[in-house]
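Tokens for chain A. Residues wanted.
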């Protein structure tokens, strides 16, 4: 008999894990809705023509391809196989599993643009798939929680992203984290200021690895990418800069004085901070990080990355402004900004910090127990009334010893047991037992409902 197994990089979620995941998802969803975002969903699969070319060569390699139905080799000739997988792929696979939620969202906007009200605010909570090498914190199937606004270049959107992140983290009891913020225009200005105009792409790819490999290794990579030694040395003051927010902004204004686009990026950051101040908000947990780059090439303005301090997990949220993501699908000039929470990483962080509330795994509030068939029938009538009152209740389904029923409630972390016996039936009451304290008292149904509520 074959032993059952899971594909590498995927996981089952049991009842406790699902309850905890829903605690995170409900917190995020409620925050998105509070800020005026509406939910959409897109299919698990997209046409490969939609997905390819949007994530770079490395991203294309990580796409899960879906074989065509039926005889998928019928159009493949011997010479196709000799010419390599790319020529063969086009004939055996037309679809793939989505790699992220952003590109499908851009496709959705273009296809439904006549029915949408712009600016369009949407959130999406769905799984994505990447044919990556599985390791801690990195899975082949995982959930993303995206929120995007398209159809406006107002920097109010960036300010509200900061507020949404802080709101979610406050509700999850996370109080030691950094919302790292930068602007791609600043990085473009830096490439101009160091004498490497037009090379902001490779510059971003290299310095995006700064936290992982350090400045010396980043310098080696920049040399390999064709950056001059004196240009790299001009970056050193930026890498080594230690200053508060006003100090960093002042330094950037001087460093980027010859770059119009760089100064525009600084001005946009200042405007975001000013919007927050006008809303009566502060800059708690917000850190201007001049070296924050984020690898995705479609970002054109503000970029975000959120890290929880003193945990083993990397970033748990990120995003940024993009000016023309829908352009590849024929709708140009549609500016937008968005960000994503990594649910799986947030789960690992809360678990590592032991921050899941005890009641997050509680599915049932009271278990009705009984001694015999007469008590079972009596409990049936109570069960309906508990549920009508909005109390999560269940009835032990078998006629069993009371100890077995109490053990069942204990293993399921059900906090209360309602015991139904002859005396309770005669008095039209229920013996309410608190399993945590051991206290037990016979009360009326109305009193039991009031206590449990």
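Reply:
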């Amino acid at each position: 008999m074959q032993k059952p197994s899971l594909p590498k990089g995927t996981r089952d979620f049991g009842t406790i894990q699902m309850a905890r995941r829903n605690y995170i998802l409900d917190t995020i969803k409620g925050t998105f809705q509070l800020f005026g975002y509406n939910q959409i969903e897109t299919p698990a699969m997209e046409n490969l023509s939609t997905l390819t070319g949007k994530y770079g060569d490395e991203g294309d390699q990580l796409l899960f391809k879906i074989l065509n139905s039926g005889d998928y080799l019928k159009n493949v000739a011997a010479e196709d196989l000799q010419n390599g997988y790319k020529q063969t792929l086009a004939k055996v696979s037309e679809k793939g599993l989505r790699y992220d939620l952003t590109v499908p969202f851009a496709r959705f906007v273009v296809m439904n643009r006549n029915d949408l009200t712009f600016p369009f605010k949407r959130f999406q909570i769905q799984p994505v798939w990447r044919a990556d090498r599985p390791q801690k914190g990195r899975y082949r199937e995982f959930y993303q929680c995206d929120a995007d606004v398209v159809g406006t270049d107002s920097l109010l959107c960036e300010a509200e992203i900061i507020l949404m992140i802080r709101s979610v983290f406050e509700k999850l009891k996370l109080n030691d984290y950094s919302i790292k913020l930068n602007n791609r225009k600043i990085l473009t200005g830096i490439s101009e200021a160091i004498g490497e105009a037009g090379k902001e792409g490779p510059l971003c790819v290299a310095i995006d690895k700064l936290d992982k490999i350090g400045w010396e290794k980043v310098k080696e990579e920049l040399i390999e990418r064709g950056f001059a030694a004196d240009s790299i040395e001009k970056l050193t003051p930026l890498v080594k800069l230690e200053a508060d927010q006003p100090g960093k902004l002042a330094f950037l204004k001087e460093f980027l004085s010859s770059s119009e686009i760089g100064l525009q990026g600084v001005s946009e950051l200042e405007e975001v901070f000013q919007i927050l101040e006008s809303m009566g908000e502060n800059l708690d947990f917000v850190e201007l990080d001049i070296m924050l780059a984020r690898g995705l090439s479609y970002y054109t303005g503000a970029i975000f990355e959120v890290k929880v301090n003193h945990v083993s997990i990397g970033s748990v949220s990120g995003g940024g402004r993009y000016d023309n993501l829908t352009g590849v699908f024929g709708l140009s000039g549609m500016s937008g900004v968005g960000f994503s929470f990594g649910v799986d990483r947030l789960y690992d962080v809360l678990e590592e910090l032991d921050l899941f509330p005890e009641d997050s795994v509680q599915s049932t509030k009271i278990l009705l127990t009984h001694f015999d068939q007469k008590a079972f029938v009596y409990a049936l009538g109570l069960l309906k009334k508990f549920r009508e009152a909005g109390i999560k209740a269940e009835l032990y389904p078998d006629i069993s010893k009371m100890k077995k029923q109490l053990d069942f409630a204990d293993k399921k972390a059900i906090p209360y047991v309602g015991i139904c016996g002859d005396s309770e039936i005669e008095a039209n009451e229920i013996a309410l037992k608190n399993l945590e304290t051991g206290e037990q008292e016979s009360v009326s149904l109305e009193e039991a409902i009031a206590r449990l509520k």
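The two ends are 50 Å apart (CA to CA). The CA atoms of residues 294 and 392 lie 45 Å apart.
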